[in-house]
Amino acid sequence: MTHHFAPEILREYDIRGIVGPSLGPADAHATGRGFATRVRRAGGTRVAVGYDGRLSSPDLEAALVAGLVASGVDVVRIGLGPTPMLYFAEAILEVDGGIQVTGSHNPGDYNGFKLVHAHAPFSGDDIQDLARLAAIGDWEAGAGAVTEADVQDAYVDRLMLGYAGGTYRIGWDTGNGASGPVVEQLVQRLPGEHHVIFADVDGHFPNHHPDPSVEANLADLKRLVVDKNLHFGIAFDGDGDRIGAVDAQGRVLWGDQILSILVEPQLRETPGATIVADVKSSQGLFDRIVALGGTPSMAATGHSLMKARMVETGAPLGGELSGHVFLAGDYYGFDDAHYAAIRLIRAVHLSGGTLTDLLDAMPRFVNTPDLRFPVAEQRKFAVVDEVLARLVAEGATVDHIDGARVTTPDGWWLLRASNTQAMLTARAEARDQAGLDALLAQVDAQLAQSGVVRAD
């Protein structure tokens, strides 16, 4: 028996695609067979499995579990919940790996699998290896047992260990994603006044799409916070590993700004520590880390790559512009938006002020969101290489950890190839609009030389 995966679903960080055209139960079964084979050949015997609230998730989870047991591993099913709860289960249960069935923040017709083996991301070449094993049917055989474990209570208990007092009025928007039940239980334990919206798990996403990195998706939370005169609001993506926030005035805090707030208490507790941020993050964040005596480390975008850099540097804290926040030190090192929310409340409390005060104190930059433009899959990395070669020849100040991040007197701009889609993304940041316009002109000039026109 063999199986061939559609190449486009084998991403750098996970397996993900459109259900029906490119991903279905046969892929879930083959993922289970291959992952179980890798686990057994490394001496393991048990795998935890969870799934998010998408309409296709139960069927994919059933096929995944069938594949795992057919290759001889025992499965612990933790049921419906956010991705960080699966990561938590993998960390605390006696298992050798874990798989979450999730489409993350993608549109509702997507789904896929995030995988962890021996407390580390299973990504990159490991995912390609699942395709290799499937193509030749090189799978172990066996008959694993299936048990169930309810870890939600233990997970919420662990989240509360990060709480450090402070009574606030907070709005919470789970966007009908998988975080709803966890957040509803969490706010019962927190002091203060809490308003949770869209907590029902519904894969139709009837209110707005659960992706807090898009400002339009935060409109309901902004309205809730302002109308009810709350201190701030917190939002989550569909599988609970990305956080968004708004202050009392309804102003958005992006992932790098949230991390900038978490940095101060972290560096008080671990002076001089390394803090990791992705290449899309504001220069203001890197400057803040230095000003507080920390060591900034710039990393490639992507949760698997960020986790690897965290381990490599021993960093207790890291984050991405997109809202992934990674907490190590007294936590497990994975990206957990619920624990990030608890730590954000803690940081506000320890500051002695408000979230609005903290946002007001940040240096002002003018920046773009991610600017996206389609480029053929086979061409996208070549374009970045061409741009890098020209920049180096020109003697530009360029960081090439992930694409090209160019620093100029006006500010900086970034061009990188998406690891999940057939497109390039660009971002730029300056002190004023004139500087930003100058940076974007540089981006457009470089793209034009490689035959690409920005389509934003």
Automatic annotation (TrEMBL):
Instruction: Identify the residues that the record assigns to the Alpha-D-phosphohexomutase C-terminal domain, covering every copy.
Output: 372-445
What are its cofactors? Answer: Mg(2+)
Q: Which Pfam families match?
A: PGM_PMM_I, PGM_PMM_II, PGM_PMM_III, PGM_PMM_IV
GO BP: carbohydrate metabolic process
The membrane-spanning stretches of this chain are: none
GO MF entries: intramolecular phosphotransferase activity; magnesium ion binding
Alpha-D-phosphohexomutase alpha/beta/alpha domain location is 10-130, 168-250, 254-364
Keywords assigned: Isomerase, Magnesium, Metal-binding, Phosphoprotein
- Family classification: Belongs to the phosphohexose mutase family.
Record-linked NCBIfam families: PhglucPhmanMutPgmG
Q: What is this protein called?
A: Phosphomannomutase/phosphoglucomutase
Q: Which organism is it from?
A: Sphingomonas ginsenosidivorax
